[in-house]
Amino acid sequence: MHIIVCTKQVPDSAQIRVHPVTNTIMRQGVPTIINPYDLFALEEALRLRDRFGGEVTVLTMGPASAEDSLRKAQVFGADRAVLLTDRFFAGADTLATTYALATAIRKIGADYGAVDLVFCGKQTIDGDTAQVGPGVAKRLGLLQLTYVARIVSLDPDKRRIEVERRAEGGMQVLQSALPCLVTMLEASNEIRRGSLADALRAARSTIVKWNAQDAGVEDITKCGLRGSPTIVKRVFAPTARTDKAIFIEPGDRPPAEVLIEEIFARQPKLESDLVSLARGF
Amino acid sequence: MIEERFDAIVIGAGMAGNAAALTLAERGLKVLQFERGEYPGSKNVQGAILYADMLEKLVPDFREDAPLERHLVEQRFWMMDERSHIGLHYRSEDFNEERPNRYTIIRAQFDKWFSRKAQAAGALTICETTVTELVQDAYGKVIGVCTVRLVGQVHADVVVLAEGVTVLLGTRAGLRQIPKPETVALAVKEMHFLPRETIEARFNLKGDEGTVIEAAGAVTHGMAGMGFIYTNQESVSLGIGCIVSDFQKSGETPYGLLERFKRHPSVAPLIEGSEVKEYAAHLIPEGGYKAVPQLFGDGWVVVGDAAQLNNAIHREGSNLAMTSGRLAAEAIFQIKSRREPMTRANLALYKTMIDDSFVMKDLKKYKDMPALLHTQSQNFFLTYPQLVSKAMQSFVRVDGTAKADKERTTLRSFVSARSWTGLFGDALRLARAWR
Amino acid sequence: MTEPAKTPPRPAARAAAKKELPEHFKAYKHVWVFIEQERGQVHPVSWELTGAGRKLADKLGVELAAVVIGPDRAATREIVAEAFRYGVDLAYLVADDVLVDYRNESYTKALTDLVNTYKPEILLLGATTLGRDLAGAVATTLLTGLTADCTDLDVDADGSLAATRPTFGGSLLCTIYTLNYRPQMATVRPRVMPMPERVERAAGRVIEHPLGLVEADIVTKVLGFVPDRDSDKSNLAFADVVIAGGLGLGAPENFQLVRQLAAVLGAEYGCSRPLVQKGWVTSDRQIGQTGKTIRPKLYIAAGISGAIQHRVGVEGADLIVAINTDRNAPIFEFAHLGIVADAIRLLPALTEAFRRRLSPHSRDRIAS
């Protein structure tokens, strides 16, 4: 089996620390990590590989520094890592990104063996929108199974896959065919810690680096800013509400009581609503 | 246990560890390096000042691509009391040389670069891997390490302990004692972001010039310690630290000290309007020569902060770390070339080399200073700064008092605070410890 | 970091992007809203979108259409009728029993066929699991622009859709346009737009369109559906009172203070994202841009700094009360009431004070 996992390197917003005295959140811009959602996808891919044999290739599109997260993916056990990096990819929206990724996936299939499954994480933590997975599937003509909580079964010979997919109010049980694209839900598994042998192998390996040409991009105008139908026109700070919060100064009185009074003063109906809501006290 | 063997295992990818790994790899040895942090430098905290001379011995053309902040053209020493400071200020155009001697750096970026150099030379560096213990044979010889990873035991001819100031492995293996609280300082620092032009205007710098302020005195409330302010490209690092046992005794918090330092009228204007983006704390070895443990044994050597190789008086640590890593690697290489085993007797070569270098020579020179400053901390860090400050003010103010009278008053204040014997004693002790 | 010394054509600069709509797109008109239904139930976000769509259509002077895709049953046609009660001018319907369950292949074909035939200038979908599964596939098939998770939709004077959303990881908003492609697609998360009024009115024009697929054409099969067991499922999106906690709580054990206050008020409880990332609380309780958007009557935020990603999730609340030890925390920029206090101490005090106040034996209680 040849499984590709698409990952993205993102700023580590989880490394938010609270300042010990002022209690404000302090953001560290520097550290980047593999998008945590992608790790669930990677673990699923590794498990399938361990069970059915084959290889896992991790693919990332990003700046040169994204090499760091690819190395980490290799330490988890991926067999191969490909970095798609080219300044022509810069400024890409979803459509341009999926074009580049799909092209690279086709090349990976041609160079390293036909692709049976493509995994993506559900979405990225840097505010992304879960659109890359479906876009890549469409471009490659792959069937797509999103929000998969569990892979129920896989038959590489019969080319069949069965999954549980999250829907409103429950799980759809779907059966589909390989090759297909799967986006994994979070908390569906837990990423393993690579063995020392995996880590050594990763430290020794070279990451395959492709620019647009290497990846087989035929039409550079479909990449990056030029290939993006959406364009960001304005970036602005949210308008500060003219009236900021009114601060409650309790003075000598117990703060909780003063606060409750202020709340009910502003929302008189609320108290009777709460009485009917509240139960079991 | 994995089958593959290595010539050397280096524990830690900080200054000492990277220097050792780089040197070993360049000499053609098979090196495996472990770092517990996510990336080299993620666990390291330093002011930070880079000493070019020592780095040049490892990476001669480091100036080409190392992430350097500012090269230092000015050094200021401040003795502070609550509202004033007396400064010794040295600045020279000479420091704007082609190959500047000192730079400010940011450790997270520098260590990554340094580690890449070691890896380019052939060292295998594995991060996010804590070494849990040293593996010893029946005779107590260190033959390898155990890591947190699955099947994570690996053997080598020699293990270089560059694990930093919290020497868990060494103590666990019974190779040394836990450092005493009197021999370690706890320092905290913040990085304050300011526009480049603001930094240049406030500190009187142009281009990539940088300045360093090292401060002592009442800011540490009578405890033995020091504060610092370093200029980076677009930020100012400032911090303060004191001996851990002093913190324990006084009940002060490091963060409280830092706040006071920042609010000091000499410091506050320098960081006005800044955005605090990072807060970090770290332990610093302060015991000096007398606290240096056994540096070598059967199958192991210890380098850098783990070996307490820190010259607190001159705030030098990273250069001693780098040098000790390099020398340890050279010693190991020599033993290997002679095809001899890494026994304690053979590894004594490392100690010989380091004794012969500035590392031990400097530490020996100041071996009595830590104790002196510590036992006399109230005097040196509180009383004297206050006295000297008042003396300076008296000297500087023009208020109609006769100068001779002023001098007499000043002298009397010194004597009443410390008595003649005290004053002479302090002077003598200081002179002796300095020599 | 050395740059390769190439001299290929330089990547296009932003300023050079021409605002020239290709001729064949000029015929695209009207605003469409995809009405998401599963097993005969419409996801409320679809109605919220008809409200937003109505405003856009009015500004553009065009029609608002609902797109209903589902099985050929009475329930589906009832959904079409319901859409008119939420103010659409016409409805497109693809009714075929092959569509009884959502599947990407069939729904993507239905929607893209409709778009290619009837050519809308704007297409809106809800950012739900179904919506996101569908929108990306449709946008890629049509090779058009998609702006996801929008917090505001408007039209410019020249008729372009201006879709605003927070920028990733930042404390800023950005407005995105799809200049040279049609339709301009956008998704919006549930509860971001207000629910419009439902008015009894007669159904209007319905245009039916064939699916053009039979079951044998579709590879993915639905083997079954397993409904969720009720358990501790959160109902944050529709709760009237929500209490939430953030990093200011300090330690995971303190989160129970939030739950206790919520219990006394019969309220829902939630948290900011960092707590989910740290594993203190499950992700279904996350409030914010990538979590749930809420519109309660009362929202109490304890120890939450108020970053933009959180703000956009709670701005629709009637009364926002913030508790934080930092007077300068961003949350006080958009909260209505603020108190500088330690949540760890104030929450239990509030719980007790509310308990007393709302108890049937309390003399302080206003007679209802």
Short description:
The complex is a heterotrimer of chains A (281), B (435) and C (368). Chain A has 281 residues and is an alpha/beta fold.
Strand content of chain C: 15-25%
Strand percentage of chain B lies at: 25-35%
**What is the CATH architecture annotation of the largest domain in chain C?**
3-Layer(aba) Sandwich
- Note the gap between the termini of chain B: 51 Å
State the helical fraction of chain C. Answer: 25-40%
Helix content of chain B: 25-40%
Helix-strand category of chain C: alpha/beta
Tally of separate helices of chain C: 9
CATH superfamily grouping of the largest domain in chain C: HUPs
Description:
The complex is a heterotrimer of chains A (281), B (435) and C (368). In chain A, 31% of the residues lie in helices and 28% in strands. Chain A has 281 residues and is of the alpha/beta class. In chain A, strands 11-10-9-12-8-1-6-7-13 form a nine-stranded mixed β-sheet, sandwiched between helices. In chain A, strands 2-5 form a two-stranded antiparallel ribbon. Mean pLDDT of chain A is 85; it is low at 14-30. Chain B is globular and about 85 Å long. Chain B has 14 helices and 17 strands. Chain B has three domains: 5-69 and 105-179 and 290-365, 3-Layer(bba) Sandwich (FAD/NAD(P)-binding domain), CATH 3.50.50.60; 182-285, 2-Layer Sandwich (D-Amino Acid Oxidase, Chain A, domain 2), CATH 3.30.9; 370-434, no CATH class. Chain B has 435 residues and is an alpha/beta fold. The mean pLDDT of chain B is 91. Chain B has helices at 15-26, 52-56, 107-120, 168-172, 196-203, 244-250, 254-263, 268-271, 318-337, 344-355, 358-365, 369-375, 377-396, 403-434, and strands spanning 5-11, 31-34, 49-51, 71-80, 85-91, 102-104, 124-126, 131-136, 142-147, 153-161, 184-193, 209-217, 225-231, 235-243, 275-285, 296-297, 300-302. By secondary structure, chain C is an alpha/beta fold. Helix content of chain C is 27%, strand content 24%. Chain C starts with 30 loop residues before the first strand and ends in a 10-residue tail after the last helix. Classes of the chains: A alpha/beta (281), B alpha/beta (435), C alpha/beta (368). Chains A and C meet through helix 3, helix 4, strand 9, strand 10 and strand 11 of A and helix 3, helix 4, strand 7, strand 10 and strand 13 of C.
